[in-house]
TrEMBL record:
This is Protein root UVB sensitive 3. Its main location: membrane. The keyword Transmembrane helix applies. Keywords: Membrane, Transmembrane, Transmembrane helix. One of its GO terms (cellular component) is membrane. It is found in: Membrane. InterPro entries: RUS_fam, UVB_sens_C, UVB_sens_RUS_dom. Residues 51-286 form the Protein root UVB sensitive/RUS domain.
């Protein structure tokens, strides 16, 4: 029997069918192709070539595993954020054109060294302003990401407005330009810091780096589109001051509206003083805990001074709480209350609460943990809600903590809230005390 030296692989079974699926997870798969071997090898694609190309392009702008790898508020936020970015880049062309004109670009009398020095002062002021802003507000950005996101863009608008008005004040040109640069320096710090906090919020699968990279692609696309539209707008409005100002102000109004809508879309699950206050008020009234989407609709997005008109219909008790008070800065009556309370009501706690004129001061123990900080704020809020209703606010607030606090935490976790820590400004002042009774010494 003669054996062939070259053998070919056996053909697949006549009924063999192979399917190709694509998707971000096992529950979000779609069939893209079917391969059959009967009567001959045949590949039948389930999606069109255009759909395939569009999917590949989309991968450059959205995170891997989208939409399952991000929170539901990612898409509306990015849409509004891209629109506000587009308006910013269009206005940048108008303000830059005015700034270069004021420096003297295109004029024979202008000197290179003079223009360079003016630009240097502008950048130097912005750098110094960024450092100072970080020093004074760095620890507050994480706890109020929504508010500072809006404030950052407002400061950017003010900076661009000063650039646009700089040609109108030639004698004070350097001063106006430096103020504009100082305003924009706050924008850079606040926007960058809040963006990091929001990226962590969007990441559901530890993919913060991927989300940040894809956001860079989205911003690049918005930048290129804004630059093209901005150059066109600057060209057609050149020499027409009224048209320039109308375009700039119209785009600024749209910019702030888009920013407000973007921030309004966010449903952050982290806990800051305002959100925990909203949750506590509802829990104390109904025994139930709100979801993040519900709380986001009740938050004060604007700074408190800009939304004070809403104070009559909103709970602002968290504004009466001073977290991490410096002991040596307290008055003598407050120190007396502190020592009494430490030896009586707060023997087992890692914090002491002192009430004076409706203000609750929270003194934290040097060994207190993030859990103690959260409990101290909840305790202070309960105490603030009892002011004017009872004379024994320490006793009754402690009774509420003993009976309800654990249940409150459990319901927070069940509804998706992150209870690991309270997002608050950095606490640098703490204290240490012994648990002995001090009543005899304070008569």
């Amino acid at each position: 029997m003669e054996v062939s030296s070259s053998s070919s692989p056996p053909p697949p079974p006549p009924s063999f069918i192979l399917e190709e699926w694509n998707g971000s997870s096992s529950t979000k798969l779609s069939k893209t192709a079917t391969i059959t071997a009967s009567p001959s090898l045949c590949i039948r694609r389930s999606t069109s070539y255009f759909h395939h190309v569009w999917g590949r392009i989309l991968q450059a702008f959205v995170p891997e595993g989208f939409p399952n790898s991000v929170t539901p508020d990612y898409v509306p936020f990015q849409v509004w954020d891209s629109l506000q970015g587009l308006s910013t880049y269009i206005r940048t062309m108008l303000s830059t054109q005015a700034l270069l004109s004021a420096i003297g670009v295109g004029e024979k009398s202008a000197t290179v060294i003079g223009a360079t020095f003016q630009w240097f002062l502008r950048d130097l002021t912005g750098m110094v302003g960024g450092i100072l802003f970080t020093f004074y507000q760095g620890s507050n950005l994480d706890s109020n990401a929504k508010m500072w996101r809006l404030v950052a863009d407002l400061m950017n608008d003010l900076g661009m407005l000063m650039d646009l008005t700089s040609p109108l004040f030639p004698s004070a040109f350097v001063f106006v330009v430096c103020l504009g640069s100082l305003s924009r320096s706050f924008t850079g710090v606040a926007s960058g810091a809040t963006r990091a906090a929001l990226t962590q919020h969007f990441a559901l699968q530890n993919n913060a780096a991927d989300i940040s990279a894809k956001e860079g692609s989205q911003e690049t696309l918005a930048t290129m589109s804004g630059m093209a539209l901005g150059m066109f707008l600057a060209r057609i409005t050149m020499g027409h001051p009224l048209a320039i100002w109308f375009s700039f102000l119209s785009l600024t109004v749209f910019h702030m509206y888009a920013n407000y809508k973007a921030v309004q879309c966010l449903a952050l699950s982290s806990i800051n003083p305002q959100r925990i206050s909203i949750l506590l008020q509802h829990f104390m009234n109904t025994g139930q805990v709100l979801f993040a989407e519900q709380v986001s609709k009740m938050e004060h997005i604007l700074p408190i001074w800009a939304s004070s008109w809403r104070s009559k219909c909103s709970n602002l008790l968290h504004m009466q709480i001073r977290l991490g008070v410096r002991v040596s800065a307290m008055s003598h009556p407050e120190l007396t209350d502190l020592l009494r309370n430490a030896g009586s009501h707060y023997r087992k706690a890692k914090y002491v609460l002192v009430e004076r004129n409706g203000i609750i001061s929270v003194i934290l123990h040097k060994d207190s943990t993030s859990e103690d900080v959260l409990q101290s704020f909840v305790h202070a809020y309960v105490m603030a809600s009892l002011i004017g209703k009872t004379s024994s606010i320490h006793t009754e607030s402690q009774s509420w903590i003993d009976a309800e606090y654990i249940l409150f935490l459990q319901k927070l976790k069940l509804t998706g809230w992150k209870t690991e820590r309270l997002l608050s400004p950095y606490i640098s002042w703490r204290a240490n005390w012994s648990s002995g009774s001090l009543d005899e010494k304070l008569d």
